[in-house]
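[Automated response] Your request has been received and processed.

Submitted sequence:
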Amino acid sequence: MLVADPIVVEIDIKPPSKMVYVGPPDISHRSVTALDLHGLMPVRPTLFPITNQIADKLVLLTGPPTSLRGNNTTAWHRYKDLIDLHYLISTCRVDGDLLRQAVATNWNWNRMDTERLPVPYRVYGQSPLAAPDERQVPWEAEIDALRHRWPQLRAYPRFSAMVDTVSHFTAELSTAQGSRWRPGQGWEPDPTAAARAAQRALYAREDRARSARTQHTSTTPPPAAGPQHRGGPDQTRGPGLRP
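Generated structure:
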């Protein structure tokens, strides 16, 4: 049966060594099954945590672009990530303690020359350039092109305003201990911070225990010594075999 309006799903797969989680996964608020049918169970998958999503984008946007565009001379950066970041900051509550940890342990630092976010926050290639060897990135033009191409993005501010929003968000991140970000309100004390810290410690202990069990059970024991290991009737032994 043909579908008139198919949905394309892209799956981004990374090895576990590149994915460092700082807390439990988020739980989706609605089922991914679009139809409510008798006997069809709703599916609410676990999701990549918001704090890790924000940390990935915060870090990647400050580093050099990893690709070129067209004639291989124009730096092509992650323009959509800046829009995503503005959306997340404008709509999501964020745990400050988890976000600081997610930024500090983000795997993208491994390919960059720095280990911390710039203060005030700026994206790589933003004019004026921060270093002589920094490459100019056409942020203004490309963000405007995206806003023109997609009507849904026209409600978003222009490039400089989005960077200002991110800069305001990160300005007090280093001192936001025990705080939570509330869109439109800023960083404020979180009365549940202690309880959630205890919960994170429990998750960490469970992860370590699970990892230890996995390492113990994943080791394949050597095969028992059989006739093929002891040799044939003449009791000869081949090289490299267990006696």
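Summary generated for your ticket: The CA atoms of residues 9 and 32 lie 12 Å apart. DSSP finds seven helices and seven strands in the chain.
If you did not submit this request, please reply to this message.
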